[in-house]
Amino acid sequence: MRGTKILPWSEDWEKSYSQEEKVLKGIVKDELVEIFHIGSTSIPTIGYAKPIIDILMVVKDIGNVDLYNSEIISWGYEPKGENGIVGRRYYIKGKDNRTHHLHIFQVGSEHIKIHLDFKEYLIHNPSEAQKYGVLKIKLAKQYPNEHHKYQAGKQQFVNDLVDKAQEWASQRRGFY
Question: What does the domain layout of the chain look like in residue ranges?
């Protein structure tokens, strides 16, 4: 069973993302539209995160991503297909000691906007980000060896944050 390790935010996470970004850009350069560092490791104001770098890649055609699997695998990633989200390609790096999650969506996917709005909302609303960090620590202490319970424990809070982020982003887009 996979445990949950939460660490204080670190600049090393930005460095790890940058290194991986270069590799991934080189692999899917013909399909790549954009690539982003997402998740808690990309938001210093959360204060704490699992030391797993989440990467969001936007591509021209999701169907072509599978053509790159052998090269992506050669860099240590394990393909998981859609893994519960239609239209996504998901990869993990590091097996039970994960270091990276790669989420790939085709340009125009609603999931792209949701992830990016979530990040921007927490960057611009540090008190909300800090509440999320406190919850992460609490749940990790409560369920140190039961990652699924940690995930379940934060799900409603995350869902509420996603709703707030979408409303916030919608209002911001109304200004320009």
Answer: 7-173
Q: Which residue has the tokens 């097996």?
A: 95
Q: Is 39 exposed, middle or buried (0-12, 13-18, 19+ CB in 10 A)?
A: buried
Q: Look at strands 100-106 and 88-93 and give their pairing.
A: antiparallel
d(CA 110, CA 81): 18
Residue type present at position 53? I
CA distance 91 to 72: 9
> How far, CA to CA in Å, does 17 sit from each of 2, 22, 117, 130, 162?
23, 9, 19, 22, 23
pLDDT by residue, tens only, the chain of 176 residues: 577 899 999 999 999 999 999 999 999 999 999 999 999 999 999 999 999 999 999 999 999 999 999 999 999 999 999 999 999 999 999 988 899 999 999 999 999 999 999 999 999 999 999 999 999 999 999 999 998 999 999 999 999 999 999 999 999 877 55
Q: Which fold has domain 7-173?
A: Beta Polymerase; domain 2 (3.30.460)
Q: Which residues pair with 103 in a beta bridge?
A: 56, 90
